[in-house]
Amino acid sequence: MALIRGVKANYPCPICLVPKEDLSNLSNTYELRTTAGMQGIWSAAQEMNATQREQHLREYGLRDVQVAINHFYYQFYFVLC
Question: At what angle do helices 50-59 and 35-46 cross, to 10 degrees?
């Protein structure tokens, strides 16, 4: 959750990539925010300059924060489920 920009972001949902203007439209389906997908977006942004990186991450409602515990957390979460 530390990476997500929040309710004022272009993509405020922590589960999927629904644009903020479509939040009330429940008939559509959108791409899920998967760990692999978000890490790919974040990794691609790391190869950009600071301005481009910020713009690229903002397009997905993300922040430029590397969260090292994500890998451990998801492994632990799936063991519990």
Answer: 160
For 32, phi then psi, to 5°, come to -75, 150
Per residue in 9-18, pLDDT tens?
788 888 888 8
The answer to whether the predicted template modeling score (pTM) of the entire model surpasses 0.70 is: no
Question: Residue by residue, what is the 3-state secondary structure of 31-57?
Answer: CECCHHHHHHHHHHHHCCCHHHHHHHH
Amino acid at 3: L
One-letter amino acid of 19:
P
Distance from the first to the final alpha carbon of the chain: 20
